[in-house]
């Protein structure tokens, strides 16, 4: 207990000395605010808003094609709804203007659907998606190739599921092999689900 009193007396003595020393008192009050101002000035740009990755898509296909449905489904309509890290998807309506924008370095690149995309998917022959990107835009090119693979995978799985459904319906006698109206109806139901 005696040691605790000694500690208390020493602390009070140091506090009295500190209170009488104007220079120490001014440093005690001013330096915390000064540090905040200096670090705020030095680190002003650190942690500022990150630029969101923008991925542009275009199609050469006529209105109503499958590519229009795909782009319409993934196009970003409201930036505020995007989660951190999600890219903004922009639909470029004119393919030639999109190419010109890449050449003029207005955009880093875009993913394009060919004019026969729907036909290629429906016939099972596939379709080649085109990535047009500036040579220096390596990250954008990689992101566009990743998006192209994701789209191809999704479309491929829908195609396989639709064909499997049609084969099962034909096998069970619920639809006839040549009845294209019934088959198209099944495909539309699969596409909407």
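^ structure tokens above, recovered residues below v
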């Amino acid at each position: 207990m005696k040691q605790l009193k000694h500690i208390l007396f020493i602390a009070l003595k140091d506090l009295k000395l500190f209170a009488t020393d104007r220079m120490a008192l001014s440093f005690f009050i001013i330096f915390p605010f000064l540090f905040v101002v200096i670090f705020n000035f030095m680190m002003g740009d650190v942690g500022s808003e990150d630029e969101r990755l923008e991925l542009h898509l275009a199609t050469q296909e006529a209105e109503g094609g499958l590519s229009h449905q795909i782009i319409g489904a993934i196009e970003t309509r409201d930036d505020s709804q995007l989660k951190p890290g999600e890219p903004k998807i922009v639909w470029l309506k004119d393919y030639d203007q999109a190419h010109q924008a890449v050449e003029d370095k207005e955009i880093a690149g875009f993913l394009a659907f060919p004019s026969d995309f729907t036909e290629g998917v429906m016939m099972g022959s596939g379709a080649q998606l085109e990535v047009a990107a500036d040579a220096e835009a390596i990250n954008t090119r990689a992101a566009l190739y990743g998006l192209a693979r994701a789209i191809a995978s999704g479309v491929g799985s829908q195609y396989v599921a639709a064909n499997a459904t049609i084969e099962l319906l034909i096998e069970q006698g619920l639809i006839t092999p040549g009845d294209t109206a019934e088959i198209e109806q099944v495909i539309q139901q699969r596409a909407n689900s």
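Residues 54-192 form a domain with the abc type-2 transporter like fold fold (CATH 3.40.1710).
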